[in-house]
Amino acid sequence: MLEVKNLVKSFGEFQALKDLSFSAEDGQITGLLGPNGAGKTTALRVLYGLLKADQGVGIINGIDSAKEPMKARSHIGIFPDKFGLYERLTAREQISYFAGLHGFKGADRDAAVNKVITRLNIEDIADRRCEGFSQGQRMKVVLAQSLVHEPKNLILDEPTRGLDVMSTRILRDILAQLKEQGTCILFSSHVMQEVAALCDKVIVISDGKIAGEGTPEELCERTGESSLEEAFVKLIGTDEGIAA
Ligand SMILES: Nc1ncnc2c1ncn2[C@@H]1O[C@H](COP(=O)(O)OP(=O)(O)OP(=O)(O)O)[C@@H](O)[C@H]1O
User: Fold this and answer.
1) CA distances (Å), 110 to each of 12, 66, 159, in order?
2) How confident is the model at residue 165, as a pLDDT?
3) Residue 100 and residue 89: Cα distance in Å, rounded?
4) Comparing 65-69, 102-106, 128-132, 222-226, which segment has the lowest mean pLDDT?
5) In whole angstroms, what is the distance from residue 178 CA to residue 146 CA?
6) What is this model's ipTM?
7) Which of 4, 41, 186 to mutate to test the pocket of ligand 1 (most atoms within 8 A of CB)?
8) Could you cite one Gene Ontology molecular function of this protein (predicted)?
9) Is residue 196 a contact partner of residue 187, using CB atoms and an 8 Å limit?
10) Where are the alpha helices (DSSP H) in 131-208?
């Protein structure tokens, strides 16, 4: 389970998060939807302990990510917004490097790497250098490295950015499988259809605050709108920065 409580964060004079609280449950896909600059990435970075909030806490399976960052990180996989790969490493070496960062050694490390390679069905590219990989192949390697330690929580920042339709579908299928296995999945997006198609719960964030929260159906009901698009526009007050 992932929680942020009463997050406040300023960059200089600019307040990016204004008392932001939300949670994401196990076995569910929770979408953080908001226009460009709403504060999604900032909130996720605080949650996984990469950024210090001025006030409030990020909690991963009951662990305060600012107080015990290493312990908290062992419970999460992070699929970052920009994925760089070590071009000279093979996919297997890349994934193994991340397994090492999570404390896997020797035969356990090899077993963990083999398991995630099989799970994501990337045997065909496992022993090729990452140099020259397509966006879809890169996405799978990054996903493998974020799942190699079998975390109970997965955080994805704009996961489908730059992916083609096929790669997006593959990612969606993998997320659906992880959800069935009880993983808590939280992802940020400003693409409304993606959030609507995938999420059990949607957290609408605008200007560093929660603008609405619930299932897609609940959000429609609450705003008195028949389409999600209209519901989101009503909650946020504008359609600027949201992609259909
Ligand atoms: N390191 C930083 N220094 C200054 N301002 C920042 C910094 N990081 C974020 N901000 C500002 O905080 C606000 C929230 O940014 P954030 O990246 O969290 O938004 P977002 O919702 O993830 O947007 P997008 O969908 O465009 O990625 C923006 O106005 C941004 O310019």
Assistant:
1) 45, 31, 27
2) 83
3) 15
4) 222-226
5) 13
6) 0.94
7) 41
8) ATP hydrolysis activity
9) no
10) 135-147, 165-180, 192-198
Q: CA-based diameter of the chain, in Å?
A: 58
Q: How far apart are CA 49 and CA 141, in angstroms?
A: 23
Give, rounded to a whole angstrom, the gap between the first and last alpha carbons of the chain: 29
Q: At what angle do helices 106-119 and 91-101 cross, to 10 degrees?
A: 120
- Does 81 score more than 80 pLDDT? no
Three-state DSSP class for 170?
helix
Token couple for 177: 């499988």
Quick check: 155 and 186 in contact, CB under 8 A?
Answer: yes
The residue with tokens 């908001």 is: 34
Q: Which amino acid is at 190?
A: H
The verdict on the CB of residue 11 being under 6 Å from ligand 1 is: yes
What length is written for the chain? 244
CA atoms of 62 and 234, how far apart (whole Å): 34
Is 3 strand, coil or helix? strand
34 lines ligand 1 (CB under 6 A): yes
Q: Kindly state the average pLDDT of the residues 3-23.
A: 96
DSSP letter at 239 equals -
CA of 125 to the centre of ligand 1 (A): 35
What pTM was estimated for this model as a whole?
Answer: 0.90
Q: What is the pLDDT of residue 197?
A: 82
- Locate the DSSP E strands across 12-136: 14-24, 29-33, 55-60, 63-64, 76-79
- Is the distance from the beta carbon of residue 40 to the nearest atom of ligand 1 less than 6 Å? yes
Q: Which two tokens stand for residue 219?
A: 């959000």
Residue 38 Cα: closest atom of ligand 1:
21
Helices (H) and strands (E) in the chain, counts: 9, 10
